[in-house]
Design a protein that fits this description.
Layout (H helix, E strand, L loop, with lengths): L8 H11 L4 H27 L8 H9 L2
Helix pairs in contact: 1-2
């Protein structure tokens, strides 16, 4: 998708430096993917904080599950 956007030069230069992209397009794509991934990670963290994963009793629980097969 082609897009025209007015982005400050200093922001573009910082994105290029931080992402190591070969050009502006690659740098912006890398930055956008990183942003999306970070948002997904933050969402998972929020979900786990609201509803923590509970591990059942260790070895005894596993043995019981295996025996009931």
């Amino acid at each position: 998708m082609k897009l025209t956007a007015i982005i400050p030069d200093e922001l573009i230069e910082e994105i290029k430096t931080l992402t190591g992209g070969k050009n502006i397009t690659e740098s912006v794509i890398i930055a956008m993917r990183e942003y999306i991934n970070q948002k997904k990670i933050n969402s998972l963290i929020d979900n786990i904080q609201k509803e923590p994963v509970v591990m059942e009793d260790s070895a005894a629980y596993i043995r019981k599950l295996n025996r009931n097969r």
